[in-house]
Amino acid sequence: MAGERPAQRDLQHTLRLLWRAQEPPRRGPRGSLSLDKVVAEAVRLADEEGIGAVSMRRVAEGLGVTTMSLYRYVPGKDDLLDLMLEMVTGRPDTSAWPGTWRGDLECWARQMRHRLHEHPWMLDVHISGPPLGPDNLAWMEAALGSLAEAGLDARDAVGVLMILSGYVRSQALLELSLARAAHRTGVRPEEWGRVYTGMLRNAADDGRYPHLMRAVESGAFTDGDEDGDADFEYGLCVTLDGIAARVPPAAG
Amino acid sequence: MAGERPAQRDLQHTLRLLWRAQEPPRRGPRGSLSLDKVVAEAVRLADEEGIGAVSMRRVAEGLGVTTMSLYRYVPGKDDLLDLMLEMVTGRPDTSAWPGTWRGDLECWARQMRHRLHEHPWMLDVHISGPPLGPDNLAWMEAALGSLAEAGLDARDAVGVLMILSGYVRSQALLELSLARAAHRTGVRPEEWGRVYTGMLRNAADDGRYPHLMRAVESGAFTDGDEDGDADFEYGLCVTLDGIAARVPPAAG
DNA sequence: GATAACTGTGTACGGCGTACAGTTAAGTCT
DNA sequence: AGACTTAACTGTACGCCGTACACAGTTATC
Fold first, then answer.
1. pLDDT tens column, A231-243
2. How crowded is residue B203: how many other Cβ atoms within 10 Å of its Cβ?
3. pLDDT band, residue B185 (cuts 50/70/90)
4. CA A211 from centroid of its chain's CA atoms
């Protein structure tokens, strides 16, 4: 479902897990499991059946092991979720970036969107705090580099980065929830816009929503939802225009 | 925790609930409960103890009634969550808006942020699809009105609205997860920036994150997090600048 | 008064995260 | 070589969760 995650957690331990900075134990049996295996199985489950399928029991089952043995490698499910995020986050591929701040940020945003499309369950996992893992930091680093090149000072760059990553996540979340709403109600995705339009017309056509009705009648909902790419690029452009207003005119 | 909500749901029924369009039954005992009472109790619980405290059992307990009796009023928990969102969403107060598109959207965004601060659990509930309830539509209507006045056509207005509401949600979510991370790790919120900085310095100072380290050393994380309002206004300005680039020069 | 519609109860099921107490296997030390 | 320590993994159990289902009590209509 949804919810906060109030459990107390040891920050140092979490960090050690994220950076794989746990020195291997000197005694005891060589374990058949490993942190990577546990996380990888959890990711596999999430990819195939959604985040709802990721339970300690099912992860253990997938590894041929009892539930409680997982707790030798992970302090609890919340940490497992964080580790899953870090694992699928990967690193941005900057090799083909054009080198202008705007072009770089466009690539950054598209690559991040691509990741979210590959693993939609990433949007179901509430981020538990500021990024701490190596790969998450690598994404920050890449964007901050481009923004520094654009001439923004560090403070502004951080603020702007939050806006951009927030935009990418929001847009992906929007696409995802539309797709799920369509799926859940048994409507084909291409038809959802039409259904939504009809619903608004029935429910809301009492004169209290004139602009909304005009938008509906103009087809803004009917036509748009089938092409997420165009919507994304449009919003990306708007967002980058806002950032451009903060960039000193000298820079690219 | 977190997760998708795959349950099949009857769209017509959900709509009837959101709009309170259920005609009262003609026979049977007058119920002691009502949809509003159920939703209100769930909201009360969420406000006081967080979304994690909202279970069918506890809502029923709070109403002095058995768990299953709730299902006479709500098809399931997912619908209850949607109804909670609709209830606390309320309507935007447009009475003191300046009338320029930019001023109006600023008020819109601040009011929405205010709502999210009053009920942080709103950010824990995954929106299940496009807005359908009367109050949610009222928020759309208000923003679309201002954007129409700015001269944007309906398509662009919808796209821009998604960006703006996405920004407000993202920023609020960021604040919330920072606050929770601080709380969870037992660090005072004002000190979290300092702790985070120290952590990055220890974990990431291997030369692979030069720009990130520069941002850290410059205090972009240390100083900023204590003043969410300033961060919000900064990002709002950036976002609106992006929108301004889409507004025909004639208008406001 | 019979009937049908409706409200609320009680029990039960399968799932969840995880605390806790074993049991077995591998190093370390005398 | 044997004792000791540590770690890996098992098994059971507890208290939550959402909700399916059968039932009892109440009310308006025929």
1. 999 999 999 999 9
2. 18
3. confident
4. 32
How far is the CA of A68 from the CAs of A104, B196, B246, in angstroms? Answer: 45, 32, 56
Q: Count other C-beta atoms under 10 Å from residue A31's C-beta.
A: 13
Closest residue to D26 (CA to C1') is B29
User: With a 7 Å cutoff on the CB, does A69 touch strand D?
Assistant: yes
Tokens of A36: 């990577």
CA of B36 to C1' of D26 (A): 22
Distance CA B144, CA B154 (A): 8
Is the Cβ pair B166, A163 closer than 8 Å? no
Q: Choose the closest CB to A8 out of B4, B178, B184.
A: B184
Among A2, A154, A173, beta carbon nearest to B215: A154
What is the arithmetic mean of pLDDT over A67-94?
97
Provide the shortest C-alpha distance from residue B122 to chain A (in Å).
10
For chain B, what is the HEC assignment?
A: CECCCCCCCCHHHHHHHHCCCCCCCCCCCCCCCCHHHHHHHHHHHHHHHCHHHCCHHHHHHHHCCCHHHHHHCCCCHHHHHHHHHHHHHCCCCCCCCCCCHHHHHHHHHHHHHHHHHHCHHHHCCCCCCCCCCHHHHHHHHHHHHHHHHCCCCHHHHHHHHHHHHHHHHHHHHHHHHHHHHHHHCCCCHHHHHHHHHHHHHHHHCCCCCHHHHHHHHCCCCCCHHHCHHHHHHHHHHHHHHHHHCCCCCCCC
A203, B7, B9, B34, B125 from B39: Cα distances, Å: 21, 20, 18, 9, 14
Given a contact cutoff of 8 angstroms between Cβ atoms, the answer to whether B89 and B123 are in contact is: no
**Is the whole-model pTM more than 0.90?**
yes
CA-CA distances (angstroms) from residue B6 to A50, A183, B11?
10, 9, 14
Q: Which two tokens stand for residue B145?
A: 């009105």
- The domains located in chain B, with CATH, are 11-89 (1.10.10.60), 101-244 (1.10.357.10)
User: What's the CA A82/C1' C21 distance, rounded, in angstroms?
Assistant: 30
Q: Is the pLDDT at A189 greater than 90, yes or no?
A: no
